[in-house]
Amino acid sequence: MKRLFYLDNLKVCLTVLVIMHHAGQAYGNGGAWAYTPSNPAEFMPWIWHFFSTNAAFFMGLYFFISGYFVPRSFDKQGTKQFIQKKLLRLGIPLLFMGAIIGILTGKPKIGHMWFVESLLVFCLIYALIRHWISPIEKKCKSRPTIIGLLIVALLMGVGSYFIRQVSPQDHWIWPFGIIPLPMEPAHYLQYVMMFVLGILAYRFQWLDKMGNSVGFMALLIGIALAMGNYLRDGGPWDAFVWQWFGIYESLMCVFISFGLIWLFREFVSTTSRFWQWCAAQSYGAYMFHLLLMIVLQNAMDSIWIGAFGKFLFIGVVTTVLSFHLTWMVKMIPGFKKVL
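and the corresponding structure tokens:
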């Protein structure tokens, strides 16, 4: 199977978006953060639109892309080797970063590595199922349609709506007690469904079969929904979206995700040494960026360039440092197998 450079490129952009998302959390209502500016004027009340729109799709799309490559990896390696490589590639970074975060906070926390832990759990469950059940045949005429995407989004949305009646957004739990498996129930159905959709997309070759009209319409619908989210500022529209946000967010997730996949497939599918280098460092950049960012935020606390200036500067500098730190760490013998 040829390498899908457009998915590599999309994953790089998602990693940068995650870093920029975290860069803004200290300067707006983006949930708990390890650093708080000493100057209360360093606050951007509008940035919650950015957080809300990002959270609607970017981690779900991460899980989709990860799920897409899981069947091919399992088919090639078999159960034993697949599990060994996932424990190496996901388990060791999880333990390493979890230990560092735990030491720094004095509590058993894993921070942003919840994604890596959940992905490891999903992969192990997939391996267990595939060990006993044969794979789905690729010979299937199904292909993505707008109606199909709408049905998936509504199923995800209705489920998310009812989950949020008992566990609202940004409410994190440890469902297994002392075992550090943090989970946000409000979004977890989305993550599970997107991971499964990624697996099915590989088996049924949906990404190749998705027509230009479907991809373009998905992108337009996703942009319209994102704009609708940005236009929320009190009033009836804001109240309506907030009441049904589990459904609205799921619509954003599915349509933005498939729209971006189509956009990158058609227009960002080429590669270069720069894109290849970035793709090779994106996983490590996700791992390392949080600690680098908090150090940089504290170091710049007394410097005044405004909240927006700090958001952009810290986001860009942390992105560059994270990718280059990964590149340097991978020069250490043995580390390249993990990162």
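(Above: one complete record from the training split.) The chain is about 70% helix and 0% strand.
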